[in-house]
Amino acid sequence: MIGVIDSGVGGLSVLKELRQAMPQADFFYLGDTARNPYGTRSPEEIKKYSLQLGKWLLAHEVTGLVVACNTITVQALDLLRHELPIPVIGMQTDVALLPTEKRVAVLATPATIAKGTYQQSLAERYPAVDVVTHACPGLASAIEHYRREEIEQLLEECRSLLSECDAAILGCTHYPLVLNDWQKLSPACRFIDPAQATAKAARHALGEQSQGDGRTEYTFTQEGCAAMWVFRLFGPNATARQVTIEE
């Protein structure tokens, strides 16, 4: 069984791609909705909470782990790989641009922007491309709890920036959950979701674990709107349940 962790419901967007890439695999999703968002927390808190999630899934016999969270990937991936005796796959930050894309926005949480992983990757691969960033404090939480008015207000703050960009990287796994809203906001901009590349990398690294019954466990540390998102993405037969993570 392959474990999948996120700070909340955002990783469900990655889980959807994982299930398409490995339809026979068994997945165990754990979202830390009780302590969401991670993107405004300190690196020490992010590492502590992420390791707790990883160890909890390890105790439930997962044999591989996908970190379906950009903040955890840039802040705690090395720690997870060092502490857990199983393969750990993070979000893929090496994105591919089209030749016509000369100005690219990185949209992410403050913690991900501060780490600079996407910016560094783009600078190394596409030195001539103009990279701009926009930290979106509050957006992941608004999406998490599906506060429509707040989501629309926070997206509107990105309109001017996106109007000057050819592409934008959705550097938080919550953001693709409202992809239609992004596309309506800026139709001429191509929005890049790293989840597809992450699913491909996971299939390559965890291929031997891809054969199972196609079952998925959806667990969260606080129910909140988790059940609604699970229903929207995976249908009425998918059931979310609450679990407790020991501090």
TrEMBL record:
SUPFAM superfamilies: Aspartate/glutamate racemase. Pathway: Cell wall biogenesis; peptidoglycan biosynthesis. Pfam families: Asp_Glu_race (PF01177). The keyword Transmembrane helix does not apply. The active site is at C69, C172. Keywords: Cell shape, Cell wall biogenesis/degradation, Isomerase, Peptidoglycan synthesis. Substrate binds at D6, S7, Y38, G39, N70, T71, T173, H174. Its EC number is 5.1.1.3. It is an enzyme of class 5 (isomerase). The keyword Cell wall biogenesis/degradation applies. GO terms for molecular function: glutamate racemase activity. It catalyses: L-glutamate = D-glutamate. GO terms for biological process: cell wall organization; peptidoglycan biosynthetic process; regulation of cell shape. Belongs to the aspartate/glutamate racemases family. Provides the (R)-glutamate required for cell wall biosynthesis. This is Glutamate racemase. It comes from Negativicoccus succinicivorans. The lineage of its organism: Bacteria, Bacillati, Bacillota, Negativicutes, Veillonellales. The gene is murI.
